[in-house]
UniProtKB/TrEMBL annotation:
Sorted UniProt keywords: Oxidoreductase
InterPro entries on file: NAD(P)-bd_dom_sf, SDR_fam
Entry-linked PANTHER family: PHOSPHATIDYLINOSITOL-GLYCAN BIOSYNTHESIS CLASS F PROTEIN, PHOSPHATIDYLINOSITOL-GLYCAN BIOSYNTHESIS CLASS F PROTEIN-RELATED
A Gene Ontology molecular function term of the record: oxidoreductase activity
Listed name of the protein: Dehydrogenase
Amino acid sequence: MGGFLGFCYRQLTYRPHPLPTSASLKGQTALITGANSGLGLEAARELAAHKLSRLILAVRDASKGEAAKKSILATSPECAVEVWSLDHESYDSIAEFGKRVAALDRIDYALLNAGVKKLEYSASSSTGHELNVQVNHIGTSAVSLAVLPVLRNTARKVNSPTRLTIVSSEGHFWIPFKEQSAPDILKRMDDKETFGTAMQRYYTSKLLNVLWARELASKVSPEEVVINTVNPGFCYSGLHRHESTGIIKIFLWMLGWSSVQGGHCLTDALVQHRDSHGEYFSEQRQVPPSSFVLSPQGQNAQKKIWQETIALLKE
Ligand SMILES: NC(=O)c1ccc[n+]([C@@H]2O[C@H](COP(=O)([O-])OP(=O)(O)OC[C@H]3O[C@@H](n4cnc5c(N)ncnc54)[C@H](OP(=O)(O)O)[C@@H]3O)[C@@H](O)[C@H]2O)c1
């Protein structure tokens, strides 16, 4: 069942489950962005509890990162937890982060989860791009390129594919993506007039996550890095902090999963499902992404977004 009714039905009837107790991540390293709160923090906690050896929490606020580290160590004291600075709004921060990543001896799991949901137009004060697009798409895409070489090298060393999961949303089904025919899609989305209503731009940024992950996957062998995207479900978290009406609170009360349950969806896509290269997960199952993504127009948009994003990052 698709659409809004399907969404409500699945939120009400499905209960995300944790990784199997037998899953051991001993000797392995994971890196999670936006790991100081919400789903990223819960995913981090779950991986650490499965004997993960090294965990890198990539956060934009060091004090929040240290608090997250403390809370993870309280239950998983054996895990070597590190807090690294990363701000998706700053190319300097991303470049600095990329340098540190390049020096790592291994990354087995990279979970690109950092995100915002801004319901009113604002442009990033550092890059000038619309904020949802900057943080959710441009920042995430840049970080995916930074972690990829280390994921590849690790796969060669350990003779087994490593994993990259990008956190998207079911909302990617729910937008018309009007900007797709613009000569420069990313530039067009910087125009305030195109922002649309309420969550449209946030959903578009989550569509960009799916398009980017699919194009990236098409360029990488699944024998090296398995790349997928995941919808974590509709969950209680700080993501909804900019909502000014009570409607979202009512929906959360009626349908919302906990951050822990959302975290289970992320760890499931990241650790399980080795044959999921280029695929999309929802309710811990591999399902098709939106029909737009699979359409010829979607495939054109995928290539265009890739080229524009690469050109922008090269700048
Ligand atoms: N919760 C849901 O219902 C839901 C549904 C679908 C998809 N998602 C996706 O799930 C992911 C996690 O969200 P959440 O629900 O856990 O929300 P959250 O609690 O607000 O967590 C978002 C994380 O992203 C970080 N972040 C925000 N802006 C950043 C920036 N400029 N640079 C680096 N990090 C930044 C936040 O850091 P600060 O704490 O410093 O702000 C926080 O750690 C997001 O990608 C979101 O789109 C969530």
